Amino acid sequence: MTIHRLHIQGVRNISDARLEPAYFVNIVFGDNGSGKTSVLESIHILTHGRSFRSTSSKNTTLIQQGLHALTVYGEIGEIHNHVGVSKAVDGVNQIKISGEKVTAVSELAKLSPVQIIDAQAFDLLTGSPAVRRQFLDWGVFHVEHGFLNVWQRVQKALKNRNSLLRSGKITDPIQMSAWTREFASAAERLDEYRQQYLERFKQQFVDILAKLTDLDDFSLSYHRGWDKARSLLDVLGASEDVDIKTGFTHSGPQRADIRIKLGKHNAADILSRGQQKLVVIAMKLAQGAHLQTFKEHKRCIFLLDDLPAELDSNHTHKVCQILEQMDAQVFLTCVEPGELLEFWNNKDQIKMFHVKHGQVSGELDE
Ligand SMILES: Nc1ncnc2c1ncn2[C@@H]1O[C@H](COP(=O)(O)OP(=O)(O)OP(=O)(O)O)[C@@H](O)[C@H]1O
Q1: Mean pLDDT across the chain, nearest whole number?
Q2: 313 - beta bridge partners?
Q3: Cα separation, 307 vs 364, whole angstroms
Q4: Which of 110, 332, 352, 358 could form a disulfide with 304 if both were Cys (CB 3.0 to 4.6 A apart)?
Q5: pLDDT reported for residue 56
Q6: Cα(39) to centroid of ligand 1, in Å?
């Protein structure tokens, strides 16, 4: 998808900015603290209803001090869908797509697949399995129409099963059996989706990684969260006593992980910081490439916060070259755009936005 217009109001130090981004490459530059990341955050709010760096559920750090709400408007996609997201200090959020109020954030996410590469992206290698499950599920969500429904069934069944387990004994065996069967059935489907996706994804990942690094013997392996030789229903039956004793479900897709290795070692334990960044970038670019191949050329939007950090010029150049070959819309932030600008062959497709004390120039004259 493509963001054609963006109107930011009250996001951190950006009071009011209108941008008409380029179809391909957008370079957002300025001094430290000028508001560059806040532009990327605004795009994330527009496409996901939330920031990628704020942990406050009350929106208070995100909304400009002294204001009671922020709003981000945009025109997105081939038919220029009008999208508006507002967030208020009291925690009330509102999403509108083409004038209609929307309650499910997944409606926004469906419109625009967004990949973020920032300082937190390292978590994909060094963080908990939850980060890698989220990565995997992002990919499946955008290519498999039935995935969201199955994922929601798993969450609901797991929640109900765990709440029955929490009492420490089974007071209602019929309910317990019903939720266990529902959980196992939805989980098996979810697992199939994940496995199929990862098998297809791996090839694209290997190709992109080879363009960026000379790392040999790199492997990604999927662990589904229970014994691969048995059905989940069998495993849940066999471990019911443990589940009752501890009060939660031990096996299932909520324990899935992708193990990322170099030879026998965990990649995170052996790679340099720059190499880790290249692996993470390769994984994210491969998801964008996969989307293009398997979803009728659906375009991904890449938000790259301070791409040059930790990378030498040669590798930064290579990342830009891969991005240029993909059909994607790219937003990059940097302090000094000089060198970064040189890494693109077709300069005509680049727009520059200078951010200074929350003011964005290169914006629309209106
Ligand atoms: N709620 C808020 N209200 C007003 N200003 C804020 C609020 N939250 C953060 N700020 C300020 O807004 C700016 C946000 O900066 P941002 O993180 O977007 O900068 P940046 O250009 O990406 O910087 P860097 O290069 O250092 O990463 C900072 O100056 C910060 O102090």
Answers
A1: 93
A2: none
A3: 25
A4: 332
A5: 59
A6: 10
- Both tokens of 119, joined, read 């300082």
Indicate which atom in ligand 1 lies nearest the CA of residue 63: 1
Assigned token pair, 345:
């062959």
Architecture of the domain spanning 1-113+299-366: 3-Layer(aba) Sandwich (3.40)
DSSP code for 70: E
* Best of 8, 14, 38, 61 for a ligand 1 pocket test (most atoms within 8 Å of beta carbon): 38
ipTM exceeding 0.90?
A: yes
The more confidently predicted of residues 1 and 85 is 85
As a whole number of angstroms, the distance between CA 50 and CA 44 comes to 6
Query: Which numbered atom of ligand 1 lies nearest the CA of 60?
Result: 1
Numbered ranges of CATH 3.40.50.300 in the chain: 1-113+299-366
pLDDT band at 362 (very low <50, low <70, confident <90, very high): confident
**Ligand 1 atom 6, closest CA:** 12
Q: Distance from first CA to last CA of the chain, Å, rounded?
A: 25
| 55-87 pLDDT tens trace | 655 688 999 999 999 999 999 988 888 999 999
Extract the annotated binding site for ATP.
Answer: 30-37
Q: How far is the CA of 310 from the centre of ligand 1 (A)?
A: 21
Chain region(s) in the chain for CATH 1.20.1050.90: 121-298
| Atom 17 of ligand 1, nearest CA residue | 37
Architecture of domain 121-298: Up-down Bundle (1.20)
Can you tell me the distance from the alpha carbon of 156 to that of 24, in angstroms, rounded to the nearest whole number?
40
Question: What letter would DSSP give residue 51?
Answer: -
The rounded Å distance from CA 3 to ligand 1 centre is 23
Rounded distance between C-alpha atoms, residue 205 and residue 200, angstroms: 9
Each residue of 263-303: pLDDT tens digit? Answer: 999 999 999 999 999 999 999 999 999 998 877 668 899 99
296-321: buried (b, 16+ CB within 10 Å) or exposed (e) per residue?
A: eebbbbbbbbbbbebbeeebbebbbe
| pLDDT for 327 beyond 90 | no
Residues whose beta carbon lies within 6 Å of some atom of ligand 1 = 12-13, 30, 32-38, 61, 63-65, 333, 335
pLDDT value at 200 more than 60: yes
